[in-house]
């Protein structure tokens, strides 16, 4: 018995959410909106490495004015997902490939946007938030496993979920993805993550939207299925 899944494929896929599955950074924009721009200074300090991401989120939520869940969702509804992401989900489901969303953002808007686009049921590992008497209340379920910089360290999730024989694909766009890079085998990057990979001489594929990723994976899956058919195995 190999480590591959029941269809014999050896891929495992991880994707960032903000700026990757969601075309824009929802977390960043929502704190900007609810703090009337005051969150920007905090984000700049995080980008400069002066504060960790947990401190960044904590301060951003303190700066945000009171809101209701209805108003929160109404704001979040203004964000689009990458139009090609649904195709990747379909491809993964039809080939039984594991696909995980890993985020240092908040489940409250990630789940809402996925549900709205008919993509509920995908596993999401992120920080958690509720709106409690108007305040955005954040908790960090994975902070004990953090590297010290991330609230939810993506490197931890790739390490714990990837089996030794699997090839891990990581897709991301920013600073919060950096810890996942050394744990993954194939990187698709844009934005600050692409910049980071260039600087560190790490091989990566540039992507603009998910169609690039899906079309890179599809031939590999077809080739694997054909190999198995040649060997007289089930497709
Ligand atoms: Mg991102
Ligand atoms: Zn980390």
What secondary-structure arrangement, pairings included, does this model have?
Elements: E1 11-15, H1 26-34, H2 39-47, H3 53-63, H4 69-76, H5 85-94, E2 99-106, H6 107-116, E3 124-132, E4 135-139, H7 154-161, E5 167-172, E6 186-189, H8 191-199, E7 205-206, H9 210-230
Parallel strand pairs: 1-2, 1-5, 2-3, 5-6, 6-7
Antiparallel strand pairs: 3-4
Helix pairs in contact: 2-3, 5-9
Magnesium ion binds near residues 16, 18 and 174.
What structural keywords apply?
binds zinc ion, binds magnesium ion, alpha/beta, single chain
Written overview of the protein:
This protein is α/β, with parallel strands linked by helices and 235 residues long. 40% of the residues lie in helices and 17% in strands. The chain contains 9 helices and 7 strands. A 7-stranded mixed β-sheet has the order 4-3-2-1-5-6-7. Strand 3 (124-132) and strand 4 (135-139) form a beta hairpin. The longest helix has 21 residues, at 210-230. The model has no long low-confidence stretch (mean pLDDT 93). The structure holds magnesium ion and zinc ion.
**Helical stretch count?**
9
**First-residue to last-residue Cα separation:** 17 Å
Uncertain residue segments: none
Q: Which hetero compounds are present in the coordinates?
A: magnesium ion, zinc ion
What gyration radius follows from the Cα positions, in whole Å?
18 Å
Percent in strands: 15-25%
Number of strands: 7
SSE pattern, N- to C-terminal = EHHHHHEHEEHEEHEH
Helix content: 40-55%
How would you sum up the global shape? globular
What average pLDDT do the residues reach? 93
Please outline the major beta sheet: 7 strands, mixed
């Amino acid at each position: 018995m190999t480590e591959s899944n029941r269809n014999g494929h050896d891929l495992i896929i991880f994707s960032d959410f903000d700026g990757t599955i969601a075309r824009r950074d929802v977390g960043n924009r929502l704190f900007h909106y609810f703090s009337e721009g005051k969150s920007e200074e905090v984000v700049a300090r995080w980008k400069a490495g002066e504060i960790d991401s947990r401190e960044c989120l904590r301060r951003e939520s303190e700066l945000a004015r009171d809101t209701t869940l209805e108003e929160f969702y109404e704001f979040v509804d203004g964000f689009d997902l990458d139009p090609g992401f649904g195709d990747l989900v379909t491809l993964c489901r039809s080939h039984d490939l594991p696909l995980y969303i890993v985020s240092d953002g908040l489940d409250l808007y990630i789940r809402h946007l996925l549900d709205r686009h008919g993509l509920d049921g995908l596993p999401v590992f992120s920080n958690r938030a509720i709106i409690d008497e108007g305040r955005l209340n954040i908790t960090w379920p994975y902070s004990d496993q953090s590297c010290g910089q991330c609230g939810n360290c993506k490197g931890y999730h790739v390490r714990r979920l990837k089996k030794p024989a699997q090839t891990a694909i990581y897709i991301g766009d920013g600073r919060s993805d950096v810890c996942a890079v050394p744990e993954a085998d194939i990187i698709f990057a844009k934005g600050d993550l692409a910049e980071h990979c260039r600087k560190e001489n790490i091989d990566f594929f540039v992507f603009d939207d998910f169609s690039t990723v899906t079309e890179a994976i599809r031939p590999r899956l077809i080739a694997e299925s054909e190999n198995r058919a040649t060997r007289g195995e089930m497709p």
